[in-house]
């Protein structure tokens, strides 16, 4: 169950990373008709960040801190990069994809070796 919680925490890390992209660095916070969606992104980022950290805390009660933290950040990093490629038109170079595959292999290795 802790691994599922950790996986969800990692997915929520992707949500807040993407949410931060759309907050424009928390700048231009004046609320107007055209700015209302930005508040939604800010709320989404803060809520998902908080929930992600809480779920990471829960997972660390039974998974070693080194393993859980690396898996959490790995899921977030790979998820954010894939989201950037698929939804935001970021580069999908061979080297970038190969690097993401290496991160995934590392995450799988940590999961397999965890006791």
What would you note in describing this structure?
This protein has about 120 residues and is mainly alpha-helical. Helix 1 packs across helix 3. The longest helix is centred in the middle third of the chain and has 24 residues.
List the helices and strands and how they pair.
Blueprint: H1 2-23, H2 36-59, H3 65-88, H4 94-113
Describe the structure using short key phrases.
115 residues, single chain, mainly alpha
**What is the mean predicted local confidence, pLDDT?**
88
Give me the count of strands: 0
Instruction: Compute the separation of the termini in Å.
Output: 14 Å
Task: Give the ordered list of helices and strands.
Answer: HHHH
Structural class from helices and strands?
A: mainly alpha
Shape: flat
Sum this structure up briefly.
With 115 residues, the chain is an all-alpha fold.
């Amino acid at each position: 169950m802790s691994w599922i919680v950790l996986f969800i925490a990692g997915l929520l890390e992707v949500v807040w990373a993407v949410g931060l992209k759309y907050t424009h660095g928390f700048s231009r916070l004046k609320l107007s008709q055209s700015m209302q969606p930005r508040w939604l992104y800010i709320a989404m980022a803060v809520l998902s960040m908080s929930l992600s950290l809480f779920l990471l805390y829960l997972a660390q009660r039974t998974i070693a801190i080194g393993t859980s933290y690396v898996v959490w950040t790995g899921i977030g990093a790979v998820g954010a990069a894939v989201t950037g490629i698929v939804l935001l038109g970021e580069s999908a170079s061979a080297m970038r994809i190969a690097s993401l595959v290496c991160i995934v292999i590392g995450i799988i290795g940590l999961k397999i070796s965890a006791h």
